[in-house]
């Protein structure tokens, strides 16, 4: 059992419950004051129970489902396009009974599993562009479906997963460099593909004061929240920015700003170090895994988590553009929480079945 | 395994990449929270703290009997409160149509405004506009209705020139007064007592420091400073006398088809003003709402200048009322004895000037000359005194300078003198005919109705001159007397009491058998008076009347002028009589019956 990974995960989830409680404290009618915390807490417990159950099965079983999961993923993403419900201009939700699920969250972990299956026997063989093309096409299809929703954040996560995994696979660095160079060269063309609000986000990222009451508002208010937290923070429930609603989305995408405001630099550093433990353990687990499938799974999961942390926290700190990417294990949201606990569970599963050291 | 070594190497890179990511994020957080923390803390405070000013109620006015004259009433004000976004042009356009305020005016007010308090667009709107804005909130985002005190001149235009009016401070005034704590949007006194006592009346605005949420909704009151109401003014004005005087003037103007007049009543023993009337007048309530262009133009284009307080800023030739000065001077200087008879043949023998109707009164003494207002007699007094001594006595009575009443825009008047002629005319030489004119109150002499009343008052008070004033007491909101205005003796005529007695007797005769006798027939109280007719080169003559009573122990002086009213005896005397009737409670029943037939 990977104790440090477990403790770090539990630490983050507990912190998440406290901060969600604080962020939603004033803005909810008193009857429902703890609705968000309760819901998130219950789902965390259910997920942990489910995770403990899943640890009994060898992760290698997943390998057999790789391609089926891939197809399921495509169907699910297509379903969103036809029966999904809109939120903030994007079709991202499917309602199943009382629960609205966000298929794009689950599609990330499914993407990792199927890509790991596919890449397993390609390790060390990604030397030419020709070698890479099938892989790119494999990821490209669901990528485009997510892009179409439109969910720029998740599609970027797909790219992060893809690059993380092919990098670990020993892709020829010249090819990788070539891809990045082409990507940068294509930027002006990509700009036209973006929706207006996405362009605005990029422009606002360059200078939030372009539109201080519109798109730039989130970034400005988030930086004010975090900056005014100083070293020790204003204390739980005391953050004026979050408690008075100046900070929107404060229990979901901008929850890190609440941590910054209420717990200060110390709280922020503590939380980020917990993430570092998770990420570092993810890399170690990849290193120690007993087979290549496990290694690739661990790399994919670590890449996904690292990208989420970088982009989400970077966004609240004003060094990354605003994308709808939640902070793993912190942001309120059942789908995201489930995906992330599932991901950690897979890491633990791999760790449990790591290669025996030979003395 | 080579490929495993390769894989391990790539993993190390990934691992260190993760460390780098976390390190960058921690570094960035440290930069915001430690290095720039103070800056963001201030921004957070600015986000959540608002000052909501609360206007101090302006001090109210009471008359000498404690009756309320001017008060405040709550009124609905349309204001803008742009919280998260500027008010859109659509909303401004819609609001402009609703409340009839031009779009440019609204935009100017928005541009001029700073701070988080509401931008006041229109004061005292009607309830139906309030209803529309409240019911169609979605059409008027950022528009709010505030309940603010509105100045209420309960008696409309009654004593409007004395009370004055209030309205929003303008740029020029702000420039001058900002050191005294005046701010944009302040309501200040612009005229009358409102202007003179603005500092006392305005009180100290208070405010609340509140914590607000993102929609500007107050969440918690952090600090509170209650407004301190302004001081109240207790006036020397007698509301009943004021009302009677207004009515007397209005009735007379209507009767003789004249348009402008002024009247002053004061107590000669104290200087307390009992009533001031100026016609035409205005309704000061118009300004409290924010006056409309139409109303403003109507006031501005009226040829009779309703905005002038003619009682203190109107300058008129004193006409025969000046004979009080000439007579006092002649007796004091000994150029004539009370008994000396002067032969009025209808014209003076040096310069052929005579009485207005050309009548000849024959041999008359001082008292008869005064009673009948004989011009020839007083031409001769002027002839004997010379212009310099006339000037000396006119100035002794206080003419040619402001009386110092506590109202704004008082005029000084003018005393005819050589120097004035030298300075203002090409032919600066002084002629005897000008002395003649000066002796009967024509020519260069100019007085205000208040000055005319003061001259009469000095005779009534045996030579004493008290500073005229409208405010008796300033009382703080807690009931303490802030300032009490005692009678202030300005001067004492340097004249033998016997001379004053002689002048008094002459003035008494005016109402007994003289020029005002027919008007005062049957008047139960002894009155001293003097009529006058001031030549007016622009039209009909102005009619004057000054009087005091009771004759033996005077407590009221009245001065009346009717612009272009013709002879004072016909135009001004009836007004003076009615004011005196009201002051002494004579014929009030009859007047009441006339009012309610």
UniProtKB/TrEMBL annotation, chain B:
Entry membrane topology: Single-pass membrane protein
Cellular localisation: Cell membrane; Membrane
Record-listed E.C. numbers: 3.4.16.4
GO molecular function: penicillin binding; peptidoglycan L,D-transpeptidase activity; serine-type D-Ala-D-Ala carboxypeptidase activity
Domain of life: Bacteria
Location of the Penicillin-binding protein dimerisation domain: 55-220
Swiss-Prot/TrEMBL GO biological process terms: cell wall organization; peptidoglycan biosynthetic process; proteolysis; regulation of cell shape
Membrane-spanning ranges: 13-31
Gene Ontology cellular component annotations, sorted alphabetically: plasma membrane
Pfam families noted in UniProt: PBP_dimer, Transpeptidase
Residues in Penicillin-binding protein transpeptidase domain copies: 262-581
Enzyme class, spelled out: hydrolase
Keywords, comma-separated and alphabetical: Carboxypeptidase, Cell inner membrane, Cell membrane, Cell shape, Cell wall biogenesis/degradation, Hydrolase, Membrane, Peptidoglycan synthesis, Protease, Transmembrane, Transmembrane helix
Signal sequence annotation: none
Family: Belongs to the transpeptidase family.
NCBIfam families for the chain: pbp2_mrdA
Name of the featured protein: Penicillin-binding protein 2
Species this chain originates from: Selenomonas ruminis
Gene that this sequence comes from: mrdA
């Amino acid at each position: 059992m990977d104790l440090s990974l477990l403790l770090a995960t539990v630490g983050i989830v507990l912190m998440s419950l406290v901060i969600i409680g604080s962020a939603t404290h004033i803005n909810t009618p008193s009857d429902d004051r703890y609705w968000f915390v309760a819901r998130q807490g219950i789902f965390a417990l259910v997920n942990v129970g489910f995770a403990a159950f899943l640890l009994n099965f060898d992760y290698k079983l997943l390998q057999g489902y790789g391609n089926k999961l891939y197809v399921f993923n495509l169907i699910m993403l297509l379903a969103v396009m036809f029966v999904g419900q809109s939120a903030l201009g994007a079709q991202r939700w499917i309602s199943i009974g009382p629960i609205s699920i966000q298929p794009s969250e689950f599609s990330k972990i499914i993407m990792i599993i199927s890509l790991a299956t596919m890449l397993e026997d390609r390790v060390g063989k990604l030397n030419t562009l020709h070698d890479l093309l099938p892989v790119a096409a494999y990821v490209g299809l669901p990528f485009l479906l997510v892009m179409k929703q439109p969910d720029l954040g998740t599609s970027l996560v797909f790219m992060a997963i893809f690059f993380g995994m092919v990098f670990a696979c020993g892709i020829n660095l010249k090819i990788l460099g070539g891809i990045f160079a082409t990507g940068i060269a294509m930027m002006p063309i990509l700009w036209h593909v973006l929706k207006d609000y996405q362009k605005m986000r990029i422009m606002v990222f360059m200078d939030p004061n372009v539109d201080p009451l519109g798109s730039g508002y989130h970034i400005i208010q988030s930086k004010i929240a975090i900056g005014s937290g100083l070293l020790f923070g204003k204390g739980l429930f005391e953050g004026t920015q979050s408690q008075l609603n100046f900070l929107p989305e404060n229990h979901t995408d901008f929850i890190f700003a609440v941590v910054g405001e209420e717990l200060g630099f110390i709280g922020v550093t503590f939380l980020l170090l917990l993430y570092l433990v998770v990420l570092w353990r993810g890399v170690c687990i990849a290193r120690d895994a007993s087979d290549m499938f496990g290694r690739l799974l661990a790399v994919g999961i670590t890449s996904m988590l690292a990208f989420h942390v970088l982009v989400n926290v970077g966004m609240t700190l004003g060094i990354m553009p605003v994308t709808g990417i939640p902070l793993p294990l912190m942001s309120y949201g059942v789908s995201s929480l489930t995906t992330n606990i599932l991901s950690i569970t897979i890491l633990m599963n791999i760790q449990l079945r790591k290669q025996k050291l030979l003395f | 395994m080579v490929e495993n070594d390769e894989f391990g190497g790539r993993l190390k890179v990934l691992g260190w990449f993760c460390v780098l990511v976390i390190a960058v994020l921690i570094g960035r957080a440290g930069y915001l929270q430690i290095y720039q923390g103070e800056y963001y803390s201030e921004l957070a405070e600015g986000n959540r703290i608002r000052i909501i000013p609360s206007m101090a109620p302006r001090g109210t006015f009471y008359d000498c009997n404690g009756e309320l004259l001017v008060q405040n009433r709550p009124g609905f004000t349309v204001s803008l409160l742009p919280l998260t976004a500027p008010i859109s042009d659509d909303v401004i356009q819609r609001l402009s149509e609703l409340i009839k305020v031009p779009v440019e005016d609204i935009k100017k007010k928005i541009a001029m405004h700073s701070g988080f308090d509401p931008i006041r667009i229109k004061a005292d709107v009607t309830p139906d506009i309030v209803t529309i804005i409240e019911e169609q909130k979605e059409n008027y985002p950022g528009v709010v209705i505030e309940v603010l005190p509105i100045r209420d001149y309960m008696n409309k235009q009654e004593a409007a020139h004395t009370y004055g009016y209030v309205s929003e401070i303008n740029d020029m005034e702000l420039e001058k007064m900002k050191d005294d704590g005046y701010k944009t949007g302040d309501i200040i006194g612009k005229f009358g007592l409102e202007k003179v006592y603005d500092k006392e009346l305005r009180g100290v605005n208070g405010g609340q420091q509140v914590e607000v949420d993102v929609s500007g909704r107050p969440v918690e009151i952090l600090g509170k400073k209650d407004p301190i109401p302004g001081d109240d003014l207790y006036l020397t004005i007698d509301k009943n006398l004021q009302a009677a005087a207004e009515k007397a003037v209005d009735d007379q103007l209507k009767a003789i088809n004249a348009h402008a007049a002024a009247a002053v009543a004061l107590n000669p023993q104290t200087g307390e003003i009992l009533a001031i009337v100026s016609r035409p007048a205005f309704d000061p309530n118009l300004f409290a709402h924010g006056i409309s262009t139409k109303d403003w133009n109507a006031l501005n284009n009226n040829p009779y200048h309703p905005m002038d307080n003619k009682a203190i800023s109107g300058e008129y030739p004193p006409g025969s009322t000046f004979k009080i000065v000439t007579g006092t001077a002649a007796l004091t200087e000994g150029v004539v004895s009370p008994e000396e008879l002067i032969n009025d043949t209808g014209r003076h023998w040096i310069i052929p000037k005579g009485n207005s109707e050309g009548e000849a009164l024959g041999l008359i003494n001082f008292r008869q000359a005064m009673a009948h207002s004989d011009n020839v007699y007083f031409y001769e007094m002027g002839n004997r005194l010379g212009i310099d001594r006339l000037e000396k006595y006119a100035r002794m009575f206080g003419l040619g300078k402001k009386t110092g009443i506590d109202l704004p825009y008082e005029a000084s008047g003018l005393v005819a003198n050589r120097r004035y002629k030298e300075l203002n005319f090409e032919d600066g030489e002084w002629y005897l005919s000008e002395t003649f004119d000066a002796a009967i109150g024509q020519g260069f002499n100019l007085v205000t109705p208040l000055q005319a009343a003061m001259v009469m008052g000095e005779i009534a008070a045996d030579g004493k001159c008290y500073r005229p004033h409208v405010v008796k007491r300033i009382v703080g909101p807690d009931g303490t007397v802030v300032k009490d205005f005692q009678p202030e003796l300005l001067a004492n005529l340097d004249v033998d009491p016997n001379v004053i007695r002689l002048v008094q007797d002459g003035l008494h005769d005016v109402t007994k058998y003289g020029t005002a006798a027919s008007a005062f027939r049957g008047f139960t109280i002894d009155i001293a008076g003097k009529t006058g007719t001031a030549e007016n080169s622009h039209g009909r003559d102005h009619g004057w009347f000054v009087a005091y009573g009771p004759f033996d122990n005077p407590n009221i002086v009245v001065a009346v002028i009717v612009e272009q009213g013709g002879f004072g005896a016909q135009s001004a005397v009836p007004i003076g009589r009615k004011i005196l009737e009201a002051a002494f409670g004579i014929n009030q029943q009859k007047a009441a019956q006339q009012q309610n037939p």
